[in-house]
């Protein structure tokens, strides 16, 4: 189960964005479609993680933390991992087929981009983090398509920028973790520096807030969400503080789920947004 990286499934909560921001929370049928989309992307992403870990198992054994992954430490046999990946892909396409042809196309695009990332793009400076951002945009767009709602281009831009922000924080944390000795298989880090990552992080954090503000101010049915901008600013700044002061960020899902001030900011955003969307 660990090899499927269930903690990473939190990324797929983005599949519910279209349902939430379209204020369709009372539509039971759309909830079922959104849950189906969430499930299929969990299967697709887990399959991609298995393939990635199969490909990188030798290099992972030399990494301070990745050596603990099930395939790298020999807990899960390569053949079993490959079979499981195929079954997960088949399951993802089965659910996507039930949701419609458009959702099948999104899964194809997601898996193709994941494959390109694993095979080549993760070794190309800056293109690696841009690819990660693209995967998040695909999730958001697929979630909106699954429930047949329109999603704002500004919201997609905000999604891409936030994902870029988190990916850059991850690269910075990796640089700090390995220090001067680059871990084999992570040669892409040679193209980064802590200083470069920090400058890009600052730019991405500002751009994320601007994109979110633009979304709230141009949204047709939810302009009141502008009241949630301070929570977004607080959350982004808190994460930036954790990255700078405590060298966190290599595992964003852990930071997002364990830091109390960050959880408070997210919780306040959820409560206020739910109230505002419920009254529009």
Overview of the structural elements:
The chain is built from 11 helices and no strands. The N and C termini lie far apart (41 Å). α6 runs antiparallel to α7 and α7 packs antiparallel against α8. Helices cover 69% and strands 0% of the residues. It is mainly α and 280 residues long. It is globular and about 55 Å long. It folds into 2 domains: 151 residues, Tetracycline Repressor, domain 2 (Orthogonal Bundle), CATH 1.10.357.140; 129 residues.
Keywords:
11 helices; mainly alpha; globular; single chain; about 280 residues; Tetracycline Repressor, domain 2
Q: Give the integer mean of the pLDDT values.
A: 87
CATH architecture designation of the largest domain: Orthogonal Bundle
Tell me what portion of residues adopts beta-strand conformation: under 5%
From N to C, what is the helix and strand string?
Answer: HHHHHHHHHHH
User: Based on CA inertia axes, which overall geometry fits?
Assistant: globular
What's the count of strands? 0
The low-confidence runs, each spanning 5 or more residues with pLDDT under 50, are 180-185
CATH topology of the largest domain, by name, is Tetracycline Repressor, domain 2
Q: What structural class should be given to the helix and strand makeup?
A: mainly alpha
Distance between the termini: 41 Å
Supply the number of helical segments: 11
Number of domains: 2
Top CATH class of the largest domain? Mainly Alpha
